[in-house]
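Hi there,

I know you've been waiting on this one. I reran it after we fixed the sequence typo, so this is the corrected version. Both the input and the resulting structure follow.
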Amino acid sequence: MGQTLTKAGIVEAVCSSAGGFSKREATEVVETFLSIIKESLERGETVKIAGFGNFVVRDKNERVGRNPQTGAEIKIAARRVVTFKASELLKQKLALDNNQPPPTPAPTSIE
C-alpha cells in the first residue's frame, strides 16, 4: 500500500503547484472546496468532477444483520451513505500506473 494523502498534504500541494498562494490562503481554498462538496452531499445532490468521478448519496433501508462474535441478529438502522464511482479516465490512469492493461470499454451495438 502507498502513502495516505491528508488535508494538510493537499494544502501543501496547492501551495507548491499553484504558486502564489500562502499556506493560509491555500488552507482557505481547500476548506472552501471541501465545504462546498460536503454541503451539496448533505442536500442529497450528486457531485460530479470531470476526469475524477462522482460522489452520490444513497439511502440504505433498515435491515437485519448479525453480530459476528455472537451470531445474534441485530437491526441495522436505515441511513444515508456516500458512494464514489471513479471516472473512466481515472480508472484508465490507475490501470496504467499499475502496469495493467486499460479496462476494455463495454461493447456497443451499431444498428
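Quick highlight: The two ends are 45 Å apart (CA to CA).

Best,
R. S.
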